[in-house]
Specification:
The chain is mainly alpha-helical and about 210 residues long. It has 8 helices and no strands. It starts with a helix and ends in an 8-residue tail after the last helix.
Length: about 210
């Protein structure tokens, strides 16, 4: 037992010494990026998939758990692949040009986005839409910071909120098929299902009544 403990301590010392080697830093950063991408993807997707599956999807418990596990795995895997690809390409470009420049980030992320998130599926679609909304806000703030757009005299957020909600409900009412499926499900629950009831049970307790024959 003591010999096994000594071997483990020696292995840990060797691993820690390797992690301190500057010449391996870029490769180790890629590995750490893969690890962080996998963990973060699982943390983000698992609770979201759990809630959405049990709220809106039908099927057996086993089918629902399988769906949650698959969605979590896909999100975790894709984010791990993207982060490691991005960091690897960043390190390669910096090594080839001898320095880091802003274009490196854009180019590396474009390649990673094409390779990892290029497939049009529900998981990737949700991630891209999430990023798009943040990008629009970020570019708006950057335009003001750089002086391309004058600083608003009043907070524009109320107007933005009004336009976004007005547009999404118009799309839902008249062009529903253009919206992402999970958003359709959420809005159906909120705006369509709330128009239907038969008695107190499906008015306050349940969303829909299952009639037994």
């Amino acid at each position: 037992m003591a010999g096994g403990g000594d071997a483990l301590r020696a292995l840990l010392r060797a691993a820690n010494a390797l992690l301190q080697q500057h010449r391996y830093r870029a490769a180790l950063a890629v590995l750490k990026g893969f690890r962080n991408g996998a963990v973060y993807g699982a943390k983000i997707r698992a609770p979201h998939a759990l809630v959405m599956t049990f709220l809106f999807k039908s099927g057996s418990l086993r089918e629902k758990l399988k769906s949650i596990a698959q969605a979590t795995y896909t999100h975790s895997r894709n984010l791990a692949y993207f982060v490691s690809t991005y960091k690897g390409l960043m390190a390669l470009q910096s090594r080839l040009q001898g320095k880091k420049i802003p274009f490196h980030s854009f180019f590396a992320a474009c390649i990673g986005g094409w390779l990892v998130f290029g497939e049009n599926n529900p998981i990737n679609s949700q991630i891209i839409m999430y990023l798009l909304s943040r990008i629009l806000f970020g570019l708006s703030r950057l335009a003001v910071e750089k002086g391309y757009v004058p600083q608003p005299k009043q907070d524009p957020f109320p107007l933005v909120a009004a336009l976004i909600w007005g547009t999404v409900l118009w799309l839902f009412e008249y062009h529903r098929q253009t919206l992402q499926p999970s958003l359709q499900s959420s809005m159906t629950y909120l705006y369509d299902d709330s128009n239907v009831w038969h008695d107190i049970s499906d008015f306050l307790i349940y969303n829909k009544r299952t009639d037994s024959k």
